[in-house]
Amino acid sequence: MLQWFRLDRRMGLVYLGLGLAGCKTAPPALVPTSVQTVSAEQIGKWVSTTEPTRGALHRFSWLYVDEQASKGGRGSARVAPPDTLRFDFAGSLGIGKGSAFVVGDSAQWVVPERSVEDLVPSFPLLWAMLGVAMEPGASARLAGLEQEGRTAWRYADGADTVDYLRQQGDPVTFSAEVRRAGKVIGRTQVTSRPDGTPIKARLTVPSVPAKLEITYYATVPTAAFPPETWARPEP
User: Which of 12, 91, 114, 233 could form a disulfide with 95 if both were Cys (CB 3.0 to 4.6 A apart)?
Assistant: First the structure.
């Protein structure tokens, strides 16, 4: 699965090795053309509905499929509000282990620094796999709308565009799409319980093409993690 994280310093992005298989038919747009300009305050309210309000340890199984291979394994994600993540994974029989420590849109460390070639293309997609939307950059143009249990919003900043769509219900459905210069880099869809506990996540990356599916099978609320949780593993 996880062709692991790689930090592209020029683009300022982390690439998480959860590659995904793209659909041959383009999915419908997440954000409709009728969206209007909205304020940063409004965006903040929408983002807050996705942010973790408590620490949690999520355990999951994963399945990665591309045109040449199918792989699977298990992993865990430790999330501390508002924006701290420790991510660990391993393939079958413990082969292909990896870990990363991320704060917001910055990778603090990744071990190994690079494993394999199928990479997940941005921090917004990484966080969206957990059902979390990121705040926009200070220079981003903001648009969105809210109607009938659906909230759609967009950040456009230079060549990059991030779209989010949240649909209320049981389960809640949360989707994200990242484009660069009009090209889709990746799209996620996550189903969660109304309290925010993730159930399933899917990431598709058309350029590979590949797909990653994650099933969250246990969530343990955690008031605080020990300091060593965030320490870089010893070689």
Answer: 91
